Amino acid sequence: MTSRRRGVALLLVLGAVVLLQGLVVAALWMAIHDVRAVGAVRLAIEGEMVAATALAETRMSGDSLMRQLGDGVEVMLPDVQRGGWRVRMTAIRRDSLIGLTAAAELRTSADSLLGAATRTLVLSLGASDTLLVLRGRSRF
User: Fold this and answer.
1) Local structure of 88: helix, strand or coil
2) No. of helices (H) and no. of strands (E), the chain
3) What is the pTM of this model?
4) SS3 call for 84
C-alpha cells in the first residue's frame, strides 16, 4: 500500500511540475510579445519624428523651390538619410496650395522593412509672398 501512495504522490508532483513549467513558458512568451510590441511602438514614434523633422527642414530650406512649382506639378525631392532612416519627399502644387509629403522607411541590410511612417504638410502661398502652414497631420 505504501508503494501505491508513493506512486500517486509522484504522479501528483509530476503533474504539478508540468503545470508549473507550462505557466513559466506562457509567461516567457508574453514577455517576448511585450518586448516586440514596445519595439514596434518605438520604431513608429521614431519614424514619425524623422518624417516630421524632414518636413520642417524642407519647409525652411525649400521655400524658393516650392514657389517655382507650376500648378499641378509634382516634384520628387532628393532622399534624406537620417540615422538609418531614408526619407522620400514629394511636393505638389494646386493653385495657391502646396502639399509636402515625407515617407520615412527603416530597412535592414537584407532590405526587409522594419519601420515606416508618413507625414503630410499643407502650405498656402500668401499675399505677402510667404508660405503659411495650413495643416500638418499624420497619415496612416
Assistant:
1) strand
2) 2, 5
3) 0.67
4) coil
What residues are paired with 103 via a beta bridge?
A: 88, 118
Residue 30 CB partners (closer than 8 Å, separation 6+): none
- The grid coordinates of residue 74 equal 509634382
Amino acid identity for residue 38 in this structure: V
Lowest mean pLDDT among 3-7, 91-95, 111-115, 135-139: 135-139
Neighbours of 105 (CB within 10 A): 19
**CA 92 – CA 72 distance, rounded (Å):** 7
31, HSE (Cβ side, Cα atoms, 13 Å): 6
Length of the chain (residues):
140
Q: What residues contact 115, with CB distance under 8 A and at least 6 apart?
A: 40, 43, 44, 46, 47, 85, 104, 105, 106
Location of C-alpha cell 518624417: 51
